Amino acid sequence: MKILKSWLNDWINLDNISDDELSNALESLGFEIEYYKQITPNYKNIVVGKVIDLYQHPNADKVRVTKVDVGSKVYEIVCGAWNFDKGAVVPVALPKSKIKDDFLIDERDIRGVKSNGMICSASELDLWDDHDGILILDDLEKIGSDFSTVYDSHDSIWEIGVTPNRGDCMSHLGIARELSNYFNLKLIDNFKEINPKIKPVLKVNSGTGKKCTSYQSIEIENIKIDDSSLTIKHRLSSVGVRIINNVVDYTNYVLHDIGQPLHAFDRDKLFGTISVRNAKEDEELITLDNQKRALDKTDLIITDNNNPIALAGVMGGFDTEVTADTKNLLIESAYFDKVSIMKTSRKLNLISDASIRFERGIDRNIQTFGLHRFIHLFEDSDDITYSDIQNDTKDFDNKSNIKFNKNMIRDVLGIEIDDKFISKTLTSLDIPHTLNDDTIEFSSPSWRYDLERPIDIIEELAKHYGFNNFPSTLPVGNKLNNVGNYWKVRKFFINKLSNLSFHEIQTLSFIDESLNQIFNPELKSVNVINPIDKTQESMRTNLYSTLINTFIFNLDKHSYSGKYFEVNNTYDKASHSKYKSIPNQNYKLGILIPKKITDNNDQEYTIQDLASTLRMLLPKVQFSKLSKPGFHKNNSFLITVNDSPIGHMGQLSYATQHQLNINEDIFLAEINLEALEFNSLISYDYKPLSQYPFIKFDLSFKVPENLISQDLIEEVINLLKNNENQISIFDDYTNEKSRNLGIRIITRSYEKTYNDQESTEILNSVVDYLTKKFSITLNEKVD
Amino acid sequence: MPELNFDKVFASLDLRIGEISNIDQFDEISKEFLGKSSLISEERKKLSSLSNEDKKNYGMKLTEATEFITSKINEQRQLFLNSQFSVQEEAEIADISIDWKPLRGSYKHVLSTVMEEVVSIFSSIGYEVAYGPEAETSWHNFDALNTPDWHPARYESDTLYLDKNLETLLRTQTSTVQIRHMEENDPPVYIVAPGRVFRSDQLDATHSPVFHQLEGLAIDKNLTFTDLKGTLEFFVKEFFGSDVETKFIPHFFPFTEPSAEVLVKWQNGEWLEILGCGMVDPNVLSNVSYPDTYKGFAWGVGIERLAMLRYNIDHIKNFYENDIRFLEQF
Fold this sequence. Notes:
The complex is a heterodimer of chains A (783) and B (330). With 783 residues, chain A is an alpha+beta fold.
């Protein structure tokens, strides 16, 4: 919302308050400053002139030549606007003057006629948007006087954020009221009586429903639809309101002045009784913007003789609008229910200055004042003929007083606030209250909707005390350096993988449904019913797809990609394991290793690298073959730790690879992190270090294709379980005839140094055992 | 008895050492001056024919000469080696500005880095990490947090819903974890909850349908507004530096009262919003049936915002596009 300093000055005397002080006050009171600007127009060499002659340009149809008297001299000026005649008093930018945007005006030749300056429009002088022609000034302005004496637009403007609970601050009056306490200045009482001369013609009531508690109107006869005064035009355009005509401008003015939306009807287009009710199903109304609106029971409407004429608080009707030909008016000033206006305005996507104020709640007791302000905007209100105000106001639920113990203030805020401060603050905010020894009793004024509970008054006191005037204290919680299992597990995996040159990625949780189908056809996807992008309405059921997408994205873009991992949720339609009414969600780790990370010759990764990575993360991990959609027939494994399945790993199937247009093999793993305990991740089985020398054998066996080398290793470890062992595979080579597996055994006794004979015995026992157990044959003794 | 002219021997040793061009020649010299057929060894053979007195005196002189020669050779050998190494090093000039195998950062996503740092700051003053679901009920996301059903935040233009009755949604704020945690745990509560939140926004420079918040909640007996101020000032100083200025300005959130926004003064003098906070609204505590002897405060901070400020990142899109050029910078 925009506010002008000059306008605030109508309500509170800010003459001795600098802009900086005002900015600080606004911010301290909770009005975030989005924008601030000093308006300092540059009116040098712009003077008041009178058009004393006017004739057609000899060489151009669309422009005229004028002779303009500026007192000291008469200038010949070419002008393209047609909205004035001989005798008009106008602003003239003389040669060497600057107008809006520092545009320089100088003598120039326009099709053979020398033009000595320019006759200006309001927008050229940066006053308001007006493209209808030049600005016509009052005939009484002194010819030759500087334009700044006609209209001094020096001002300051703020655009501020008003929080949704403070509808009462959506006007200059509302802001002034808050400032009055801050600066200890009294609000100016702008109440003036009106002097009605006629009787109203129409009957008016607020209807039988509860959604309109007050409907008031005033009728004005023989009105002249005209321009508003310079001040009103300038103020309205400064706060972002479009200038229309005096009647519409003045209704807008009252809204920004005191927060009461008004609506002007052409009285001659209304019949019978004006009332308020909910629309019926299938009722229609053409609104001011000439759109036919289908109404329903939730919409509140204004009717004449029961026919819809306006959408209450949201937009007027096309058929009853004020036009240039309007003679007689009915001005509406009403109170409508917040929620009802909000629903209609959102449903029809019609958001206006009026609807915004109604939906936040306007003052329940300001409707009459609104009509008074309207009448007094006419420069001489005695010159217009208007009726008395018709007022149908229902009793609204007067909120009862609320009483609470003063200790509550200290309990919430942590400091003592003395009675003097409390009393002064509540008084200047017009909040009725009584202070007793131990208690405070208060009720809320008609414009406040945010004062229903003790905490609301405590907040008010804290705000006016100034948040930055509070001391600071630092409490220490009960979980000192104890972040808990969830965070420790997450950090464990992220640190390990990122230190191994895996890039951690963060991808959106939405995915194309077809990608969910590749990997999890057995799961039903969770869908967003109002997705941002229709092709991404599913929530991902796995982390594989987004890992693959990232791999492809970088490879395509840079011919260079990487190894990736992501720690995030997957979702599916099954019910949640712990909570009612929400879909299943699992917190998972996904890993991707590509065969090659660049297009060029490079290190090649295999599925063994992925298995090694998993063993590094989870030393007790076990793999067992498990086929899975989207994965390689053989190279696809269930991951278990301590016999509990926790995930899956494998190679992307060639079909999927082909479908996704990937040239390289891709290795993927996904682990559910929810079941993992941090303490088990960092529990290690320590083996003492033997003090004796090692013996080493490299053995090569002819083995079957499907032999799992880990089984071989485990048997050796079992056989030598009393020793310290390092058993590894050093070769796995398949030629046309057979698969040959090289196993390296390094073993140490805890008790002695082996002699040659003992070494040979151990070697023979291992070979004998393995060849029998696995039906394999020893190729040769390599060592 | 004619004694060996030691000075002559030593002079000849110096001469021989001066001629050395190869490290192995030291062994030859050693053999020449101290070996079996050296002058010194020859003299030693003669000792047996001397009187006891002379044997002792001359023997001592020969030993001294032997030690002198040995140490001289060793010393010169070391000097020779050192000068050789010096020449070798002189010739070896590595251009370490060449990055043959670039290793950049820890490859941790910058959002994780920032989240871990924020968590560790709060962990140091007694907060644990809580975790809650991302697909939530509307009740946990709105009603329990004192946000009535007509509130604008609930419109479909802002919130992503998962069913036609608008009963489940993707949480729009990590404040849901406050409710989940309090439903399952008795007070006192000191938690932070980092996590994903969702809004109906297209991914562009300043918006993302997915972003991260860290929610904080402290509920205990005797917690007040000054505790809220002190806690968040501590956080800001730990994260941005102890000399950074902060201010609190009033704000509105449905689930806290009083509510505030915390601003920090940036290098260019501009005040920037960092987080929203407030005293937990009594309605929220009664929604989870906490006794009214407990009070507290809560706050929410945008992780992307912290990361963007700290590292001058200009586009929120960068966090979710995972361009490897971006990932490798942190």
